[in-house]
Design goal:
The chain folds into two domains: about 140 residues, 3-Layer(aba) Sandwich (Rossmann fold); about 150 residues, Rossmann fold. Helix 2 crosses helix 11 and helix 3 crosses helix 4. The model has no long low-confidence stretch (mean pLDDT about 95). The strands form two sheets. A five-stranded parallel β-sheet has the order 7-6-5-8-9. A four-stranded parallel β-sheet has the order 2-1-3-4, with helices on both faces. The two termini are about 15 Å apart. It is built from eleven helices and nine strands. The protein is an alpha/beta fold and about 300 residues long. The structure holds phosphoric acid mono(formamide)ester (CP). The site of phosphoric acid mono(formamide)ester (CP) has 9 residues, from helix 2.
Length: about 300
């Protein structure tokens, strides 16, 4: 891979996508064998999260450690950001600390690109506002590929708060590149204008959209990003858009249920479905480490000294 940064699926070519997925698949095998590598020995990976995270931050840190890197975790709440330090100045400080890769999550779309343009370190976008979350899309795609093989012609239904979801945007782009047929489903108030131009079908009727689905991927209601009411009640939303065992009867025989997490049980998904035989939610988390190992290895192999 020749690039310095991974900022979004929209920047990647088909061959880069395939390189990340095939490397991640190999990394997953090393995780299953409990192997550790030293390929990133002498390298420093920093996580710089301006928003909360459980899965993404910890799996990037696990990934870095699995490859032998040193990790630095910048807690924004306890950092000089609280004294007014800008994102770019924080990035330059990380450069001066000889950081090789900065993993950034920020509430403002475009922040990872701004950082990448102003630092020597490689930058990986770990979620920016309502824009993209590329490593999440890759772990979703890896999980689906490990289940189905080729995703060509597979039907994936992404249901829920599409409007506020960076995961939905990255998933639509990546699953589309892999040949899947993607439908996004939400009440009209939670569908962003122009989402169909990203190459997906749009349907507000979940019972119709789910028919024959191979993959169902509910999204959390992102209440923290809502500045107005988008549905009349949580109960009504769950009634029409909740993923229940009864609704899943309309799927293809061998369907899977994915969720990027965190889940809100009995809001967008029942506990029975989340813990059920078709759920691959925990598999996604493990694949998240593999995908992030692949990203770190491929970026650092391109930048800096011999590994
Ligand atoms: N899916 C995801 O981004 O989870 P976290 O917010 O816990 O990182």
């Amino acid at each position: 891979m020749k690039r310095k940064d991974i900022l979004g699926i929209k920047d990647l070519s088909k061959s880069e996508v395939n390189e990340i997925l095939s490397t991640a698949n190999a990394m997953r095998e090393t995780i299953d064998r409990n192997e550790r590598s030293t390929v990133l020995r002498g390298r420093t990976v920093a996580t710089l999260f301006y928003e909360n995270s459980t899965r993404t931050r910890n799996s990037f840190e696990s990934a870095a450690k699995n490859l032998g890197a040193t990790t630095m975790s910048i807690s924004v709440a306890a950092s000089s950001v609280q004294k007014g330090e800008s994102l770019v100045d924080t990035g330059k400080t990380l450069d001066a600390l000889k950081t090789d890769v900065i993993i950034i999550r920020h509430s403002v779309a475009g922040s990872p690109r701004l950082l990448a343009e102003n630092v020597k370190a490689s930058v990986i976008n770990a979620g920016d506002g309502m824009n993209e979350h590329p490593s999440q899309a890759f772990l979703d795609a890896l999980t689906a590929q490990r289940k189905f093989g080729s995703l060509a012609g597979k039907k994936i239904v992404i249901v829920g708060d599409v409007k506020h979801s960076r995961v939905a945007r990255s998933d639509v782009l990546l699953f589309g590149m892999l040949g899947a047929n993607v439908t996004v489903c939400a009440p009209y108030t939670l569908l962003p204008q122009g989402i169909d131009s990203m190459g997906c079908d749009v349907d507000s009727d979940f019972d119709r959209a789910i028919e024959g689905a191979d993959i169902v991927l509910p999204l959390r209601l992102q209440l923290e990003r809502m500045d107005q009411a988008f549905f009349s009640s949580r109960e009504e939303y769950s009634y029409y858009y909740g993923v229940t065992q009864k609704r899943l009867a309309a799927c293809a025989d061998d369907y899977i249920v994915m969720h990027p997490g965190p889940i809100n049980r009995d809001a967008e998904i029942t506990g029975e479905v989340a813990d059920g035989d078709h759920s691959v939610i925990e598999e996604q988390v493990t694949n998240g480490v593999a995908v992030r190992m692949a990203m770190l290895q491929l970026l650092t192999a391109n930048v800096g000294g011999e590994l």
